[in-house]
Amino acid sequence: MKPVIFVLAYLILAPFVGALLDGIDRIVSARMQRRKGPSLMQPFYDLGKLFSKEMIAVNNVQLLLNLSYLVILMIAGSMLFAGADLLMVLFILSTADMFLIMAASSDSSPFANMGASREMLQMMAYEPLTLLVAVGFYLTTGSFQVSDFLTRDYSAVIWMPGLLFGFMFTTAIKFRKSPFDLSTSHHAHQEMVKGITTEMSGTTLAIMNIAEYYEMILLLGIFFLFFVNSTWWSWIVAFVVCALIFFMETLWDNVSARVKWKTLLYSCWVVTLVAGGVNILILMLIK
Amino acid sequence: MNKVSKSPWLLHYDASSCNGCDIEVLDCLTPKYDIERFGIINTGDPFQADILLITGGVNSQTESVVKQLYSQMPDPKVVVAVGICACTGGVFKECYNIKGGIDTVIPVDVYVPGCAARPESIIDGVVRALKVLDEKQAAMKKDGR
Ligand code: SF4
What we know:
The structure holds two protein chains of two kinds. By secondary structure, chain A is an all-alpha fold. Chain A has helices at residues 2-32, 42-52, 62-81, 86-105, 110-141, 146-149, 161-174, 202-227, 233-255, 261-286. Chain B has one domain: Rossmann fold (3-Layer(aba) Sandwich). The A-B interface holds A 26, 30, 33-39, 42, 44-46, 48-49, 51-56, 188-190, 193-194, 197-202, 205 and B 1-4, 6-7, 9, 31, 34, 36-39, 41-45, 47-48, 50, 72, 74-76, 137, 140, 145. Chain B: InterPro entries: Complex_I_20kDa-like (IPR052375), NADH_UbQ_OxRdtase-like_20kDa (IPR006137).
């Protein structure tokens, strides 16, 4: 019964929580820049407007591909919240991203196509570490099942601080935050018009935004797993730490400038190798 | 809830401005004026924009660009002409390559005069454009689009 409730809660609440977090993010960012910023509900207004706009379809597959991106992300998230196999969740997550890349390459805009190739590059940058995180969880808890992580009497982070750091580092890519927002940015300005979303408008863009909210909650869910254990208070700790991590991503977004693709690739791989690799090595030796 | 004026995204194009008005447009984004408090985002993408904000008059090179940007924006949309050049052609009006104000190529909804237009009057013009935007959305709904 419990997994069903979790999955339903995720499917229904994730877009709302995601949009709210986005609203908070925009206000916090504005305050960091000594501006007042938009209202908390701004992401909801944006979505409402996007759905009400005239439909401009650049071709007849883009909407479908974007919908696939959304649905597959929903599946990945549901599996995580149902307590299923973490490795599987991560694989489905990458599959979802492929649909976004296809959606962007399906139109004729050179900016969108460039965004699509940069998105692939970003996948190459974060994918190794994401896999190491799954392996780390296995070595720590002896299982890939998310539901098993919750029953251990220690938090996974004790054994995998390096992996947590690495995951925080690479999540900036997934959250589309500076310095790693190469393919498209969650800010209005980008050097390639809008990157992958250049030719998406109205409903198509709204669907992509909702999908990103689902993804955001999924990623925060993985952060959650680092801290949670069988005690009830660990859930509170995990919530607080997730909020803190989200704040730190916003801070990082505001204090750093966008990097070139080579820097992105090398820095992510170095972090993967040093923080992730060493962490896994130690785990393998002493566990 | 889905009123378009609650989240107007803005596309700024420099048709042939002397850059005086452009600087003032960018001023609106700074902490002092902060147009994001109205939910306005200065996007660079016509596909996602609701307001087309143009500075400078139209010349023979930018005419096709202005038309294309306008046609790429999904309805409902409004056009704001910022600066006297964009309104009528201004001091460049008699130039051999200038066609005149923006309204010689596309319909303009709000005119913001001034040389350069002050950030306050630009914000004022954009906020007036929001009303037009809502009217256009209501008209669209009535037509059943
Ligand atoms: S109105 Fe004045 S400041 Fe603006 S573009 Fe024309 S000449 Fe430049």
